[in-house]
Amino acid sequence: MAKVIVERPRLGGGGKYPRCHDRRRRRLDETDADSGVRRESMRRPWEDGKFLNENLAPLRRYLQKQVGRPWNKVFSEICRNVRVDSAVQLHIRQHLEDFVALHVEIVGRVVMHTNRRWGYGGRVYEDFYVHPRTGLLRATPRPRKRPAPAKTFVEIDPCRQVRMIEGIWYEIRLDRPFVELARSRWPEIGDDEILDGHVIEKRQLNSKQIRRMRKELQEVEQEVEQEVEQEVEQEVEQEVEQEVEQEVEQ
Fold this sequence. Notes:
With 250 residues, the chain is an alpha+beta fold. Helix content is 38%, strand content 18%.
């Protein structure tokens, strides 16, 4: 487990001769008698060492398979295979609290923290928790996503709209209001809102027109998303350029 989760392979391992000798690294310092290599294997040495990794997906999968088991047994098995005197393997135990909430209480159907590092009573967002009564490892229930409200209005242009009225789609054509009529009825309207158009035509859409309208709407939404992404990328590039210019000036 430690090898997969926290050890990154050596660089350059795909070459024909993965082991090589770095003379500069092993060259003796004439002014320091304690420097240099005192003992070396007969095998060709590695050029680069290993690095710490943050591949925590195997740890999450392992915990997922242990759901329903007593947490004490799961934790004991992890500790049995993780050496405390190894900083690399100890890295696994340090990440357990990122996945498992140990001190919780259940309020209704919501799992809440009772002892949180940065507060008390917060909702559990870790993937797993230890049941306060049984001590079993459980998967944290996720709140159900509320379905987005169905669209009942699509504006094609300022004078043309598509609206759903009582479950039926209609194409509606508008015209600008008569300003004189609106002004003449001001005492009756009072503080009510004066709309910027009135209906001059309403036509029910058939199934083919509805499918075409939905397809066009999806294309418009995709274009808007692409424009937003491009704007964000441009802003990030501008910020990076400004930071580089400031560093150069300094």
